[in-house]
Write a structure and sequence with these properties.
Layout: H1 2-6, H2 10-13, E1 15-22, E2 25-32, H3 33-46, H4 50-65, H5 71-89, H6 97-100
Antiparallel strand pairs: 1-2
Helix pairs in contact: 3-4, 3-5
């Protein structure tokens, strides 16, 4: 079982930073490449750019929670929830619905 995880391509868990404008402020977000790939898939499913999706998720979580202590972790969890919903429904879920549930 461990071979499945241990033999993963190191590029997948290498992290990469991207500059993103959120609420008019440019910020840097650092995530592992695999999470960037999932965010891109989520954005494509919603018909928006990845940066637009991230800004929308930030806007919605701030509206719902009032704050987000660790936005990068929130995005990782959102990616995992997206994949879980996709697996369970065999339909690509709308990613912005991840925040509301």
């Amino acid at each position: 079982m461990c071979e499945l995880y241990v033999k993963a391509d190191p590029i997948l868990y290498e992290s990469r930073s991207r500059s993103i404008r959120i609420c008019g402020v440019v910020t840097t977000l650092r995530l592992e490449n695999q999470f960037w790939d999932i965010l891109r898939e989520m954005a494509e499913a919603d018909g928006v750019a990845t940066n637009q999706l991230i800004a929308k998720l930030h806007e919605e979580v701030m509206s719902y929670r009032g704050e987000v202590v660790n936005f990068a972790s929130f995005l990782r969890v959102s990616c995992m929830r997206y994949l879980t919903q996709k697996r369970n429904s065999n339909v690509v879920p709308m990613s912005v619905a991840v925040v509301a549930q």
